[in-house]
Design brief:
By secondary structure, the protein is mainly α. It is about 55% helix and about 10% strand.
Amino acid sequence: MKKDDILICSELSRLGRNLLMIMGILYECMNRAILVWTIKDNYRLGSDINSKVLAFAFGLSAEIERNHISQRTKEALARKRLMPC
């Protein structure tokens, strides 16, 4: 991608598997003046400081949510293994 291109994704969490990956992609986009638009939350991120702060906050919340989902899944699988058939 190059300057003034627009990266469109469903949500920021879809950009990577963890916060560092998401932040790396957003950092690269901001350095290259690539806009990042999300469909689900309707965010428009550019290279300004407000976008950088929002990108960090959204990336962090997305990682926390993924961790909660993973934890709930692991707990449910553990309970299922303990139940007799």
